[in-house]
Amino acid sequence: MVHICFVFEYCDWRKYWRAFRRRLLLKVEHMSEISKPNNPLDQASKSGSVMVSSTSCARVEPGLAIVSRLLAREFGSIDRAATRRRASLPAWRVKRAIDYIDAHLSEQLSLSDIAQSAGLSRMHFAAQFRAATGMRPHEFLLRRRVERAQTLLMRPRLTSLDVALSTGFRSQAHFTTVFKRLVGETPARWRADARGNS
To answer: From residue 189, how far is each of 120, 145, 150 by CA, in Å?
Structure first.
């Protein structure tokens, strides 16, 4: 005998079950691959020996396992990419966040600061920003800092340390690591190549 434990109290689900079964009867018949003969839950539900254990126990009607699998298949196949596209950040909020990032590049920015500038919570903003731009907010911030660093590296009077500190990096080593990862070469080599080309 198979027992299924529920956390909630017993309710009169039989009237809902009968109405629902009438609507799905044809669909369940066509879903023969859901009910496999070697599945013990399906065998138990067909024989009527599945019991619901809670404060009070009730006999589960045959076919409940089939219907629950059908519901899981129907509602589990939501197009998540379409949901993400719909849940992306509106253009005006993206612009507000980017403007805030650009204005405060030399400071230590946190996700909370950027999210607050857009008027959203941290987690909500992070998910929507990634859906809108294709990048996490921190990755976007690093790319903006490197772009600003490239313009500052064109000035001959600034050292790499000055550029690193003025673009919000905490150390020259961190700046060099991020710059090399995003651009493909170190700041010194990039500066020498850029001066040679101009």
So the answer is: 40, 18, 12
Listed in order, strand segments (DSSP E) in 6-90 are 51-53, 58-59
Torsion from C-alpha of 29, 32, 36, 41, nearest 10 degrees: -30
- May I ask the CATH architecture of the domain 91-197? Orthogonal Bundle (1.10)
Question: Whole-angstrom distance between the N-terminal and C-terminal Cα of the chain?
Answer: 81
Q: Are 59 and 45 in contact (CB under 8 A)?
A: no
Q: What residues does CATH 1.10.10.60 cover in the chain? A: 91-197
Cα separation, 8 vs 155, in Å, equals 68
Q: Per-residue pLDDT for the chain (198 aa), expressed as one digit of tens each? A: 444 444 444 555 566 666 666 666 645 555 544 544 555 545 544 555 444 443 434 444 556 667 666 666 666 655 555 544 557 889 999 999 999 999 999 999 999 999 999 999 999 999 999 999 999 999 999 999 999 999 999 998 999 999 999 999 999 999 999 999 999 999 999 999 988 876
Give the type of residue at 12: D
SS3 for 119? coil
